[in-house]
Inverse folding.
């Protein structure tokens, strides 16, 4: 046991002696974690000098910058140099590996030229952890890496995100004030006349926002002069100052055409805005004019159609100053008249009923259907069902095709499939030339009046075919037919036969039909 302990101690002392012989000195503090003979190959290649590749394996951010051809280490002054020529080690724990003359250092080689006020700064004014965004680089001591070139990476945003981050579009490097590059002509509000002599602070006030001084440059209202200027007229002439004044001088008054008539007892609106002053002010502008009624100036176009006791109502009850052609007469107003609008009449333009000639007529235009609509049923429908041409007996105002007529009041009650047919199916028919004729009166009630006799007179008796003997109204099937009521009763095997086994089609040049009337019933007539 004592022997083993002794051997272990000797090996340890031997290793320390060997390392002391090889190492030229202690590593700098930043490399102290690499101390020990087992870590040599992390920086050195055996038998060779220190490799740049080994250095850049650890200093990956610097390698990334070099690969992108950015920064001082990619400049012609140091490109291709060995790292250890500037950053040698093994000179003791306190040895500074990053050393250069800050007074003579050419900052242009970093890719960021120091201009204006930046040229007066010392290195530590900018190269400090507070301005480094990357946490890993920020934790390094005495590093010059990790800074960005945009202004707001180092400077506080005085404008507090109201003007974007391109500071150089308005400012230069000499001083933050004034914004020498700013051109007010490119702003939404261009300075003209006297405004060109006004100092910025007059419009762009300073205040404290979020605990810091702030000067507002965006979001300033400028739609009206009163946004900035006090209205010395106390809103008597409105807020549109430019109709009388200009930016050249407040005391320069424009012509009378810009006079605001709304300050008078009669504001000009709609079409009146474009009327020449002399059209109303015929003598001078100060003589009073009656403006309480439209007919003070305008002639009654309707020739007293709306007069009550010889007094015409004011035009404003139906019209506005936007134009005589449009009417403000509402649907509710029309529904309070003797002819309320319902159904399809709601979508009918006014002129259809009230302008049947060159002039508009609103009185005595009639309220019956036939006063406006053509009476297409005249002489076709009996007075019994059509008294005084009263269309509403069958039709409604929603849709002309919707017909409600109690057909049972006629001599032909609708049953079965007949209930599903439209009126036109029976009462409107085309003749041989294709012309449609309507017929309501004297329309026959026999099936043959509307339907073709596909049996071609086989069942005709005394000039009449009684279809109801076999058929009903629900379908064309012969549900009512009983073969045992004929001259040939079915029995035996005959009961199982299909109709077509005995009733064959007759083919002729004129038409085809099934033969149901058989003259003889002998067996040999069918069985051969």
């Amino acid at each position: 046991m004592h022997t083993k302990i002794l051997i272990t101690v000797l090996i340890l002392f031997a290793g320390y002696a060997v390392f002391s012989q090889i190492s030229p000195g202690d590593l700098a503090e930043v490399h102290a974690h690499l101390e020990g003979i087992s870590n040599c190959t992390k920086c050195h290649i055996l038998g060779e000098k220190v490799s740049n590749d080994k250095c850049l394996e650890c200093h990956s951010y610097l390698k990334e910058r070099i690969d992108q051809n950015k920064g001082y280490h990619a400049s012609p002054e140091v490109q291709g140099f060995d790292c250890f020529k500037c950053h040698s080690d093994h000179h003791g724990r306190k040895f500074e590996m990053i050393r250069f003359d800050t007074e003579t250092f050419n900052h242009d080689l970093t890719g960021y030229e120091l201009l204006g006020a930046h040229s007066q700064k010392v290195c530590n004014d900018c190269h400090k952890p507070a301005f480094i965004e990357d946490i890993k680089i920020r934790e390094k001591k005495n590093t010059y890496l990790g800074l960005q070139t945009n202004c707001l990476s180092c400077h506080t945003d005085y404008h507090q995100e109201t003007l974007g981050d391109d500071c150089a579009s308005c400012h230069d490097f000499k001083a933050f004030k004034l914004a020498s590059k700013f051109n007010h002509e490119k702003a939404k509000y261009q300075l003209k006349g006297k405004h060109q002599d006004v100092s910025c602070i007059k419009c762009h006030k300073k205040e404290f926002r979020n605990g810091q001084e702030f000067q507002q440059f965006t979001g300033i209202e400028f739609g009206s002069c009163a946004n900035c200027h006090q209205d010395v007229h106390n809103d008597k002439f409105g807020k549109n100052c430019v109709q009388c004044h200009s930016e050249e001088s407040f005391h320069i008054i424009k012509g009378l055409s810009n006079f605001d008539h709304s300050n008078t007892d009669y504001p000009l609106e709609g079409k009146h805005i474009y009327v020449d002053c002399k059209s109303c002010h015929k003598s001078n502008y100060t003589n009073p004019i009656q403006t309480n009624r439209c007919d003070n100036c305008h002639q009654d176009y309707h020739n007293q159609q709306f007069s009550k006791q010889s007094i015409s109502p004011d035009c404003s009850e139906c019209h506005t100053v936007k134009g005589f052609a449009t009417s403000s007469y509402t649907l509710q107003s029309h529904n309070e008249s003797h002819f309320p609008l319902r159904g399809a009449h709601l979508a009918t333009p006014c002129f259809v009923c009230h302008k049947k000639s060159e002039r508009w007529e609103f009185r005595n235009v009639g309220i019956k259907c036939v006063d406006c609509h053509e009476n297409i049923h005249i002489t076709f429908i009996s007075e019994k069902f059509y008294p005084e041409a009263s269309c509403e007996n069958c039709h409604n105002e929603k849709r002309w095709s919707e017909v409600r007529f109690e057909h049972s009041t006629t001599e032909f009650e609708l049953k079965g499939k007949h209930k599903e047919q439209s009126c036109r199916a029976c009462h409107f028919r085309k003749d041989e030339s294709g012309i449609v004729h309507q017929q309501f009166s004297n329309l026959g009630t026999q099936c043959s009046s509307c339907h073709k006799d596909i049996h071609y007179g086989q069942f005709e008796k005394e000039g009449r075919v009684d279809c109801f003997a076999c058929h009903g109204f629900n379908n064309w099937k012969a549900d009512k037919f009983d073969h045992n009521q004929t001259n040939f009763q079915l029995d035996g095997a005959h009961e199982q036969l299909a109709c077509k086994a005995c009733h064959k089609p007759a083919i002729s040049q004129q038409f085809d039909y099934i033969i149901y009337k058989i003259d003889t019933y002998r067996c040999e007539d069918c069985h051969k």
Summary: The first helix runs from residue 2 to 22. The CA atoms of residues 260 and 525 lie 111 Å apart.
